[in-house]
Amino acid sequence: AMALCLKQVFNKDKTFRPRKKFEPGTQRFELYKKAQASLKSGLDLKAVVQLPPGESINDWIAVHVVDFFNRINLIYGTMSEFCTERSCPIMSGGLRYEYRWQDDCKYKKPTKLSAPQYMCMLMDWIEMLINNEDIFPTRIGVPFPKQFQQVCTKILTRLFRVFVHVYIHHFDSIINMGAEAHVNTCYKHFYYFIREFSLIDHRELEPLVRM
């Protein structure tokens, strides 16, 4: 079923575009391969997220932010047909939580958007940031900016909201597609990572606290 889901995503130009990749031969590509190998080996996810000895924390965070972005973008893409202007006129996480969009460009103040609009703005905004060499440098020896971890916190906080919306409003679709195990593993991996490096304010986690 998951293969079918992924096929649907790749057929939908509007929900999936190729994202930033790690260049083979670079330190970050090696780090990405190391992270993926640990993940596939079935190690405890709490252990998988820990910084490998001798590695730079910013490199480790950069690799994970890009990877989580790609994977969460795919997850949302698989169920975007169930998340419409009609079904989700507000970007929310149940009755208690509503997320408004602000990007300091087009939307200078927090603005109510439908869930599909919010997701589209979010994916474009993250794509712009991770492809910005001043924020996510790819050349060896080019340092990360001072505000790098703050930017990553903002990206990860907003990506967490995708999980909130998908779990609370579209969990039946996840189950019907047979994607529950895949989504749960991605969520757990993401959760352990943000907790390991204290990258999200604990108040943001409240909508899914019972999980």
From TrEMBL:
Question: SMART domains annotated for this entry?
Answer: Mob1_phocein
Q: Which residues form the signal peptide?
A: none
Supply the SUPFAM superfamilies for this chain. Mob1/phocein (SSF101152)
What is the designated name of this protein?
A: MOB3C kinase
What molecular function terms (GO) are annotated for this protein? Answer: kinase activity
Lineage, top-rank taxon, reads Eukaryota
Q: Where does Zn(2+) bind?
A: 83, 88, 165, 170
Question: Is Transferase tagged as a keyword?
Answer: yes
* Pfam families linked: Mob1_phocein
Q: Which UniProt keywords apply?
A: Kinase, Metal-binding, Transferase, Zinc
Instruction: Report the source organism.
Output: Dicaeum eximium
